[in-house]
Amino acid sequence: MEAAVLGGMIFLGVCFVLGAFIFISVRIFQINPSFITKILKYLMILFIWLFFSAASIMIGLRIDSRHNDSYSRGMKSVNEIWGGSIVQDPPTLTYAGKVTEEYQNTTTGEFKERVKSVDEGLAFESQKIFIKIHKNIRQKGLLSFPGYNLDFVGTYKIKNIRNKVSNVKFYLALPLYAGNITDISIEMDGKPYKGDTNLANGVDWSGLMNADEEHEIKITYKAQGTGSFSYSLAATKLEIKELLVQVETDFTHYTVPDLAMVPSTIDSDSKLTKLNWNTKNLITGQNISLSFEIPGNYGKVASKLYFYSPLALLLFVGMIVLFTVAKQTHLHPMQYLFLIASFTIFYLLGSYLISYMSIILGILTSLIISTGIMLYYAKLINKGNFLIGLIGASALIFQWFFSIAFFFPEHTGLLITIASVLAFIGLLKSTAEVNWEEKF
C-alpha cells in the first residue's frame, strides 16, 4: 500500500513538473519564438548524438565479444598444438616414518593402538632454479599469442637432518600443460643419474641417508608454453632454507600476477630482463609466476576505443556547434545528422575491416574514409573554407588523435586530456571577442 502511494506521488510530481515545463515553454514561445526554436534545434542535435553514441557502444560490445571468442578459440588451439601455461610443481622430500594411531575393533568394540608407516616431510637445504623463457610467438589468423621456449635448470640440495639413518625420498613431477618436454637430464652429486628408468611419471630418487648426509640433485629440461609460467610453491607447504630463483626473459611485456611472490631484484637491458627471487628459511603460500603479453593484439584496445566514442563524438559536435555559433555559420540539424553519421562511419567500417586486415591498417583505412566523407560533405554544403577547416581540425583531434591514443594504453588518458586541452585553448582564442549575448 505504501509503495503504491509513493508511486502515485512520484507520478503526480512528474506530471506537475512536466506541466510546468510545457506552460513555461508556451509562454516563452509566445514572447520569443526564436528562443524555443533554438532550444528544439539543440535538443535534436543532442538526440542525434545519443542515438549514434549508443550505436557506437553496441558496435564496441560486438567487437569485444567477437575478439574474446576468437582469442579464446585461438588460444585453445595454440595450447593444444604448442603448449599452454606451464606449471612446475616443486619437488617433495620425505622420509619413511611411523606413527601410532588408535582404532576400534569392529568385532569386539575395543579401542586398540597400531603403528602405521607414513611419509614425513623434510626441509630442503636449498633450491636453486634457473629458467630461460624466450619468445616464440605463435600466430593464428590475424591474432598473435605469447608462445615461448623454456629452459629449466633446478638444483636441489637435500640433507638428512635427523640424528639417525633414514629412508629419504625425492620426487619431482614433470611440468603441467607444457608442450613437448625434451632434453631431460638428471645428475646426482655431479654424475649422471640412471636410477629412474621411466621419467614420464616424474623424477624419483630414494635411498638410505646417514645423519647429516647431503646430496645434490640437478634436473634440466626444455619445454614449450604460452601465456604464463608458474613455479607453484603454494601447491604444497614446504620449508626451504635457501631459495634462489632466476628467470631470464626477452619478453618486454610481463606482469607478476596477483598473489604471486614479488621479485627481490629486477635487472634489464635492451634485450633481456632478469628477475631474481632470493630468500632464506622460507615457508610460503605464494607462487613464483609471470604472465606474458605481446604488442599487436589490439582487440581490447579497439573495443575500448568504441566505448569512448560518445566522448569523442560529443567533443567533436560541441566544437563545431560553438565555432559555428561564434562565426554565425548556421547549420541545420539535418546537416549535423549527416556529419555525425559520417563520423560514425569510422566505427562501423572499422568493426568489419579489422576482421580482414591488421587492426592498425583497418583503423587507419576507416579514419581516412570517414574523415574524407566529412570533408567532402562540408564542401558540398558550401558554407565556406572556414567550415571545411573546422571539420578537418575537429576530426584530426577527436577522431585521429583520440584513436591513436588507445594504442598507447599506459598513456591514453594523458594523451586524450592533452588533445582536449589544446582544442579548448584554440576555442578560447577564437571566441574570446565574441559577444555571446547576441548569439543566444
Please tell me about this protein's structure:
- The chain has helices at residues 2-31, 33-81, 299-307, 309-326, 333-353, 359-380, 385-405, 412-431, and strands at 86-88, 92-104, 111-121, 126-135, 138-140, 143-145, 147-159, 166-172, 182-188, 191-192, 203-209, 214-226, 228-231, 240-249, 253-255, 265-268, 273-282, 288-293.
- With 440 residues, the protein is of the alpha+beta class.
- The strands form 4 sheets. Strands 10-9-12-7-4-14-17-16 form an 8-stranded mixed beta sheet, with no helix packed on it. Strands 1-13-18-15 form a 4-stranded mixed beta sheet, with no helix packed on it.
Number of helical regions: 8
Helix content: 40-55%
Question: What summary fits the major beta sheet?
Answer: 8 strands, mixed
Mean pLDDT: 81
- DSSP E strands, number: 18
* Strand neighbour order, sheet with most strands: 10-9-12-7-4-14-17-16
* Elements, N to C (H/E): HHEEEEEEEEEEEEEEEEEEHHHHHH
- Overall geometric form: elongated
Helix/strand-derived category reads: alpha+beta
Q: Give the percentage of residues in beta strands.
A: 25-35%
Gyration radius, to the nearest Å?
Answer: 34 Å
Would you identify the regions where 5 or more consecutive residues have pLDDT less than 50?
none
Measure the end-to-end span.
Answer: 48 Å
Oligomer: single chain
